[in-house]
Amino acid sequence: MPGSLNADKTKSALRTTAVFSAQTLVVLLLAYVALWVMGKAWSVIWPLVIALLLTTLTWPVARFLRNRWNWKPALAAGLVTVLFLVLMAGAVVLIVVPVANQSGELADGVVNGIQQLREWASGPPLNIGDDDVSKYLDTAVAELQNRASSIVNYTLTGLNTVVSGVVTTVLALFLMFFFLKDGPRFLPWLSRQLPGRFATDVPAVATRSWDTLGSFVRSQAFVGLLDAVFIGLGLWIVGVPLVLPLALLTFITAFIPIVGALFAGFVAVLIALVTQGWVDALIVLAIIIVVQQLEGNVFQPMIQSRGLGLHAAVVLLAVTLGGGLAGIIGSLLAVPVAALISVIYTYVRDQLSDFPPEPSPEVPPDPEPEPDDEEPSMV
């Protein structure tokens, strides 16, 4: 008998494991199909994602205008969209105009830097003379001529990327306007369209997801502000010109993972090189590396983990995994996607654990004591 009981338990455990494995495979298959569909529709999903992120950043202003000043939804959304465009244009002006005003100084610095490089290369240990430089230039020109078709293809690809970026930005701005205008009416409409319990669960998850996206955008903006302040302070101490445009560029590019930080750092080091020399350029490079390492490994995981309810190690692993799977876009979306998965999992867990308590078995009341005929003793 004990042997047969153990065999039955083993069969039951194997059956349960097989059912769970089959369910897991079905879930993974559905996830793969969903990702494949998203990949095919990425030209529409990507502007939608950008619009949602921008909406979480600008919604507090639109909500203030609608609730405190009783503005019409279309008027509030239109004003916020226009203000956002003005701020973006102002940021571009603050970057471009100072650079244009000091373009002559920068050009002179580039010429002097090239001259110093030639003088250094002509001495020991390289001993590269003008004839050698001319030979290298001729070789480079010949190589460029041989790769002319490839360069044209790369140029056309770059132009297509730029055009696609402009179209995505315009579409995202239009979607942001409609989200700001009609966003509060979406969840009630969605609740009316869904059957049964979905009418309650899906809007609840959507509300929590919206709050999570808002926390992500605000934390990313705060991290970008820290980068801009510390790097700008370091550039000011070293004496590099164009501190304000470089700090503003650092803040804007902080929203673009990996490439944004590399681009802003490269521009800062290049300007320090052509205006201040090699020593100051190396100092600026060291400052940028230290700040970005602190931001990527300390500030960002701590701030985002606190705002999104994720552990700092989870944030780091999510960014690493997203970058490995989908490059720059994966790094950008890794943290909010991980936070949304955490929101859905927490909600499902709470719903599954929130069962009504089982009724306790009825206990018959204690029988009342029989009245005693004798008087109680006073002893």
TrEMBL record:
It holds the Pfam family AI-2E_transport. InterPro entries: AI-2E-like. The chain crosses the membrane at residues 12-38, 44-62, 74-97, 162-180, 221-240, 246-271, 278-294, 314-347. Residues 365-379 have a biased composition (Acidic residues). It is a multi-pass membrane protein. Residues 355-379 are annotated as: Disordered. It comes from the Bacteria. Keywords: Cell membrane, Membrane, Transmembrane, Transmembrane helix, Transport. It is found in: Cell membrane. Signal peptide: none annotated. PANTHER family: PERMEASE PERM-RELATED, TRANSMEMBRANE PROTEIN. Belongs to the autoinducer-2 exporter (AI-2E) (TC 2.A.86) family. This is AI-2E family transporter. It comes from Paractinoplanes bogorensis.
